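As a warm-up, study this chain.
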Amino acid sequence: MAVDAVFAALADPTRRRMVETLAGGTTVTASGLAAELPITRQAVAKHLAALRRARLVSTKRVGRETRYSLDAEPLGDAARWIATVGAEWDDRLADLGRLLEGRSG
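Now compare it with the structure written out below.
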């Protein structure tokens, strides 16, 4: 399931911070991200690879640089999954509430 990869990628706080940075709409190099984070350029590259596997990040070659940007579509898929599961639980809890009200009355 593609949503699994999104949740796995976002489980790491450093990757969430990278997604937040990229959500600003700018394209950034790995070195640019490393300058904003307390981790090495190599660690940034490793995190970017995880984000690419989850299809959260797209790349574009500009001269000698690789620039990274956010692809928000997988986030939308994850949000829709959460909404679906949340609605199912809302229904279940409402049924439980009605059942408990019927027993106390």
